[in-house]
Amino acid sequence: MSRETDTPMDMAAGREGADIAEAFVRARQRGGSLPDFPGIIPADLVAAYRVQDLAIARWPDRIVGWKVGYIAEARRDASGDERLLGPIFAGRCSEASDHTPIPVFVGGFGAIEAEYVLRLEADAPPDKLDWTPDESVAVPATLWTGLEIASSPLATINALGPCVVVSDFGNNNGLVLGAEIQGWRALAESELLAESWIDDVCVGRGGASALPGGLPAAYAFALSRSARRGRPLKAGDLIATGNATGIHEVRVGQRIRVSFGSHGDIAGHVVAATPREAGR
């Protein structure tokens, strides 16, 4: 009986991926920055998710959800994925307050994104690997307002493309959860509106209908890609469905606010990411 073995090329790629994951984890833990991508950029999203999985295994916290990011058509690979996933960790998930801190990596990339956040109210079937937007309604979820803290130690993360974004936790450094939107399935997505403000200047307007395919498309992608990665979604998981007003870069000291109209505001102030203690 024969068995498959890793080729020297496979083993070299595995070592390279481990080095990339370690570099991003160490930079995040010290609250620092990286001057360049720490290695050879993964060739495709499959390789990039391998790096992400290695980094998740090294990160001393549990996952409470996933951010969904849209991939422009010109930047998609052979997988055909229109979106990507990045983990949201418990220690970086908070409820909105009057002055929520928004930690970003000084010398790296930092931005805010208005989000509509789904919270699963039941486990997704673990053996279902493909979901359509219409099928996603079979997994009940509540809807909340939210704000993604999009930040990475690498300043050029978005410019370098989706494989780099996936490699570093999807360019996520936290999620601020706002208010629940009651009866959301009975609302037209055109009624779910949002505005983003920095230092009292409006920098973006939009809403749920700004998401390509709307909320069900983002939900279906999260269900599908998570299941294919062997990480099927479970009750309580959060899904940040994508930026509803744009990606708005911020710097330390700025005041931010995201308004969801009658569903409330999320306000905060941008601070420098600080070193994390091991095990926290």
Biggest sheet architecture:
8 strands, mixed
The helix/strand class is alpha+beta
**What is the average of the pLDDT values?**
94
Task: Specify the number of helices.
Answer: 4
Give the number of DSSP strands: 13
Helix content: 10-25%
Alpha-carbon Rg, integer: 18 Å
Task: Please tell me about this protein's structure.
The protein has 280 residues and is α+β, with helices and mostly antiparallel strands. It has helices at 8-29, 45-58, 162-167, 214-228; strands at 63-70, 83-89, 93-95, 100-104, 109-120, 141-152, 175-180, 193-198, 201-207, 238-240, 248-249, 255-259, 265-272. α1 (8-29) packs across α2. The termini are far apart.
Keywords:
globular, five-stranded mixed β-sheet, 4 helices, 280 residues, 13 strands, disordered N terminus, alpha+beta, eight-stranded mixed β-sheet
Give a topology summary.
Layout: H1 8-29, H2 45-58, E1 63-70, E2 83-89, E3 93-95, E4 100-104, E5 109-120, E6 141-152, H3 162-167, E7 175-180, E8 193-198, E9 201-207, H4 214-228, E10 238-240, E11 248-249, E12 255-259, E13 265-272
Parallel strand pairs: 1-10, 3-7, 4-13
Antiparallel strand pairs: 1-2, 5-6, 5-10, 5-11, 6-7, 8-9, 8-12, 12-13
Helix pairs in contact: 1-2
